[in-house]
Amino acid sequence: MKFIDEAQIEVIAGHGGAGSVHFRRETMEPWGGPDGGDGGRGGSVYIVALPTLTTLMDFRFKKKYKAPNGDNGSGKGKAGRAGADITLRLPVGTIIRDTVTGEVLYEFVKPTVEPFMLVKGGRGGKGNMHFATSVHQAPKFAQPGEEGETISISLELKLLADVGLVGFPNVGKSSLIAAVSAARPKIADYAFTTLQPNLGVVRIDEDRTFVMADVPGLIEGAHEGIGLGIQFLKHLERTRVFIHMIDAAITTRDPEEDYNIVRQELGAFNPELLKRKEIIVFNKIDAAQDDTEKLDAFCAKLEAQGKIFRKVSVAGHDGIPELVALVADVLFTNKYDFVEKRA
Ligand SMILES: Nc1nc2c(ncn2[C@@H]2O[C@H](COP(=O)(O)OP(=O)(O)OP(=O)(O)O)[C@@H](O)[C@H]2O)c(=O)[nH]1
Ligand SMILES: [Mg+2]
User: Fold this and answer.
1) Using a 6 Å cutoff on CB, does residue 185 contact ligand 1?
2) Residue 4's pLDDT band (cuts 50, 70, 90)
3) Is 338 in the pocket of ligand 1 (CB under 6 A)?
4) What dihedral angle (degrees, nearest 10) is formed by the CA atoms of 299, 305, 306, 307?
5) Is 60 exposed, middle or buried (0-12, 13-18, 19+ CB in 10 A)?
6) CATH 3.40.50.300 in the chain, residues?
7) Share of the chain above pLDDT 90, in %
8) Across residues 51-73, what is the average pLDDT?
9) Maximum Cα–Cα distance for the chain, whole Å?
10) Which of 125, 148, 253, 294 holds its CA 20 to 30 A away from the CA of 111?
11) Domain 160-342 indexed as CATH 3.90.1150.10
12) How far is the CA of 339 from the centre of ligand 1 (A)?
């Protein structure tokens, strides 16, 4: 799914503090020499590109990034404090353009090894203590601080879904994306509520987000055009993980059969999709039938195959934070790499 994420921001480095004009004043020395200290340098703005961020969403809320100014110098030769540097965290893949010229300044194709400077803070001004000469012993001037650099940049990132939600219609796929992201897809108690893929950004913590794609439901024969077909599966080709959702409450179908049918349809579209890591999620556990024999038998099979599965209730908010943490582990750690090797 190719969505472009864009943001425009102003980045302003801190102004350098002014040098101080000051003279020594002591009881024994009422007309002492100049002792105005230097101003501190302004804070600079650095950039890092992180592999664990996947969107520019933070930059759409906050548009101005300013590093603090340096403090002014003061008497007794005291230097002003430097303004602290700030660091902007961008996802790998971000392209930075100069908003004014449109010129590409940077493209982060891989994570940055160390932060690099985007705009530099202004130098602090020198205090008057530096300007005394034999002929000019009481300079009444000091250097002002320099301005910090400023730039207006456009950020651009191709959004790719990391996680694809697949399953029969009406199992609760859209309900899940709505529960864990800001996406607000249509949710209703009938098949094929979702007609178009939806993207949602799921935030785990400050440094980690992932993009989830909710697509229309699959049914038997989808590869022959039944239901909404399978063309929308092209949006899932670049995902790294599938959440395969199964309705644990339905009485007219069998969970294992549902699972196999959806797998067949995925394979008919592209056999590569079957190699994707998958998390099997049994939803609507709040409304599950009393007779859980079939479900239990299927779970035992999955367990024996070393597959990852969870039972949740999206509507009842049961097991959802745990599911998000599991997805994060599958995406960002190698804890679950064995799953891929077995496939
Ligand atoms: N009892 C129960 N109902 C749920 C749960 N999660 C979702 N539902 C309901 O199941 C119905 C279908 O939910 P959707 O999220 O639209 O399902 P979907 O898989 O996106 O369906 P399609 O878009 O048609 O493929 C809605 O009426 C939801 O309110 C749950 O945990 N328990
Ligand atoms: Mg839906």
Assistant:
1) no
2) confident
3) no
4) -60
5) middle
6) 160-342
7) 64
8) 91
9) 101
10) 148
11) no
12) 28
Place of tokens 């520019």: 56
Question: Measured in angstroms, how far is the CA atom of residue 285 from the centroid of ligand 1?
Answer: 12
Give 165 Cα–ligand 2 centroid separation in angstroms.
10
Q: DSSP string covering 238-275, please?
A: T-SEEEEEEESS-SSS-HHHHHHHHHHHHHHH-GGGGG
Q: What is the pLDDT of residues 264-313, one digit of tens each?
A: 999 999 999 999 999 999 999 999 877 788 899 999 999 999 999 999 99
> 155 with 62: CB under 8 angstroms?
no
Higher pLDDT, 86 or 190: 86
User: Is the CB of 128 within 6 Å of ligand 1?
Assistant: no
Q: How many CB atoms lie within 10 A of CB 104?
A: 12
Residue spans in the chain of domains classed CATH 2.70.210.12: 1-159
Q: Is the pLDDT of residue 343 over 50?
A: no
C-alpha of residue 224 to centroid of ligand 1, in Å: 25
1-159, CATH topology level? Spo0b-associated Gtp-binding Protein; Chain: A, (2.70.210)
Q: What is the pLDDT of residue 308?
A: 95
Q: What is the DSSP annotation of 274-296?
A: GGSEEEEEEE-GGG--S--HHHH
β-strands 104-107, 95-98 pairing: antiparallel
